[in-house]
Specification:
Length: 239
């Protein structure tokens, strides 16, 4: 029963937050800071509605451009991670998102990059444009490097795009780890559970070339997997 009530309230909140976000985006379309504002709009009431507490340590805030790499667990990531998006940070998403009512238009007008995965040429062009954004527009990029939702707690193999882009633009990688909340949260309880989020120290790409992508990818993957296990252990022990 509690789960059903929460889903109804969450749906209403999602629509209202999307409408407010759209107004902001129409006033200043494609401003890269729109994503941060939208993220906070979604997270602000969603977390109390869901009964979820988020504890963030070493938030992913960096004054210069970087590539954020985070683990992607579910659609709830919008609410769980929405409140920690750093200023002037955009993300990459499937082109089809543009056609999701309200959210898709908000996502597009927030300056996020839409990738046509069915067209290799257009996909490469979008990635090249995003690399130029990193270099010259004081904007960071947020990646879910697994490329799909994965609630298991064991990271899937990472896609290379984030690491190729970071090396090409000469900006660091900042790993962002969230505890495996899909395995620990119960939305039928009043206090559903806690999510721990932590940004790890940045990984420099200075002096690296395309041949270093596999090593950089493996380093980031290993660091994140270890930290996610540690965060999960803390959630389980109640620390």
């Amino acid at each position: 029963m509690l789960f059903t009530v929460r889903m109804v309230l969450l749906s209403v909140h999602f629509i209202v937050a999307s409408l407010v976000g759209l107004v902001v985006c129409l006033v200043r379309p494609f401003n890269p800071d729109n994503s941060r504002i939208a993220g906070r709009l979604y997270a602000s009431l969603a977390l109390p509605i869901l009964g979820v507490r988020v504890q963030s340590e070493r938030l992913p805030v960096r004054p210069a451009p970087c590539v954020y790499v985070a683990n992607h667990q579910s659609n709830y990531d919008l609410f769980v991670m929405g409140g920690i998006i750093a200023p002037r940070t955009v993300s990459l998403g499937k082109k089809s998102l543009k056609y999701v009512p309200l959210f898709g238009q908000l996502y597009w007008l927030s300056g996020n990059v839409l990738i046509d995965r069915g067209n290799a040429l257009r996909s490469r062009q979008s990635m090249a444009k995003t690399t130029e954004t990193l270099r010259h527009r004081n904007t960071s990029i947020w990646f879910f490097a697994e490329g799909t939702r994965n609630p298991s707690g064991q990271l899937l193999p990472f896609k290379k795009g984030a690491f190729q882009m970071a090396i090409a633009a000469g900006v660091p990688i900042v790993p962002v780890c969230a505890s495996s909340y899909m395995r620990h949260i119960d939305l039928n309880r009043w206090n559903s559970g806690t999510v721990l989020i932590e940004a790890l120290p940045e990984i420099s790409t200075t002096g690296l070339g395309p041949e270093d992508v596999p090593t950089l990818l493996a380093q980031c993957h290993a660091q994140m997997q270890q930290r996610i296990h540690e965060l999960d252990a803390r959630v389980t022990s109640g620390q």
